[in-house]
Amino acid sequence: MKMKTTLSLVAAAVALFSYGAFAQEKSRAEVKEEAKAAAKTSGAGEASPTPVAKPKSTKARTDVKTEAKAAEKSGEIATGEQSAKTPKPKSTKARADVKTETKAATKSGEIPTGEGVPKK
Q1: pLDDT in tens, 23-80
Q2: Measured between alpha carbons, how far is 18 from 11 in angstroms, rounded to an integer?
Q3: Residue 96 has what pLDDT?
Q4: Which of 5, 39, 55, 109 has its Cα between 20 and 30 A from that of 77?
Q5: Is-contact 44 50, C-beta < 8 A?
Q6: Distance CA 48, CA 4 (A)
Q7: CA–CA gap between residue 33 and residue 39 (Å, rounded)
Q8: What is the rounded distance in angstroms from the CA atom of residue 99 to the CA atom of residue 113?
Q9: CA distance 34 to 111
Q10: How far apart are CA 46 and CA 39, in angstroms?
Q11: pTM higher than 0.85 for the full model?
């Protein structure tokens, strides 16, 4: 009984492992020939990318630099996190007037000072 079970297991194992050998339709040489033919016709692959021509400039480097400086001065070029330079608002009051108004507001309690809650 043991012999029959062992023989049937061996036969099943041989059948399973030999199936892969019969499954191949093409030989290794045929596959290599196909790969060579495909590489010749396509011409592009990971190993040899097609070269890309660099664009040529029509201006001299110094001209470009002076234009960039002028654009930066005029505010056309965005810097930092802002999208474009915004003009600073102009005040209609003199600095001394603003200071005296601020002192008066602080004294009267209109402007809270410190960390506490303002008293009413």
Answers
A1: 567 788 888 888 888 877 765 555 556 677 888 889 999 999 999 999 888 877 777 6
A2: 11
A3: 95
A4: 55
A5: yes
A6: 59
A7: 10
A8: 16
A9: 85
A10: 11
A11: no
Closest CA to 72 of 80, 88, 59, 90: 80
Kindly state the percentage of the chain with pLDDT values over 90. Answer: 22
DSSP states along the chain: -HHHHHHHHHHHHHHHHHHHHHH--S-HHHHHHHHHHHHHHH---SSSPPP-PPPPPSS-HHHHHHHHHHHHHHT-S--TTSSSPPPPPPPSS-HHHHHHHHHHHHHHTSS--SSSPPP-
